[in-house]
């Protein structure tokens, strides 16, 4: 009887393909947008008094953007912030705002060169 000098890898490949198929099918059933997530609230704040030179930006629940209490379009934001890029910026976002709107605003702010110092305000909760 002659001995085989090679390892037969075909069964190993078959098993790996079956495992890969199981992982892919299982991963397709995971639904990320149905998670019940409660956003954290803060009980401590670093500073409650804004600096006098700070610019104020607000995003309401409907996705409307306000710069120094004046409504603006997202396309205007870059030009307004580019005028004085070193001045700090405070961003106040309503908790009911769509996350996509928030990301679009932060992305626009971070796309400036250099980006202004940004503070995202949170609501202080009494313990």
Automatic annotation (TrEMBL):
It is found in: Cell inner membrane; Cell membrane. GO terms for biological process: protein transport. It comes from the Bacteria. Keywords: Cell inner membrane, Cell membrane, Membrane, Protein transport, Transmembrane, Transmembrane helix, Transport. One of its GO terms (cellular component) is plasma membrane. InterPro entries: ExbD. It holds the Pfam family ExbD. It is a single-pass type II membrane protein. GO terms for molecular function: transmembrane transporter activity. The chain crosses the membrane at residues 12-31. The keyword Protein transport applies. The accessory proteins ExbB and ExbD seem to form a complex with TonB. Involved in the TonB-dependent energy-dependent transport of various receptor-bound substrates. This is Biopolymer transport protein ExbD. It comes from Sulfurivirga caldicuralii. The lineage of its organism: Bacteria, Pseudomonadati, Pseudomonadota, Gammaproteobacteria, Thiotrichales.
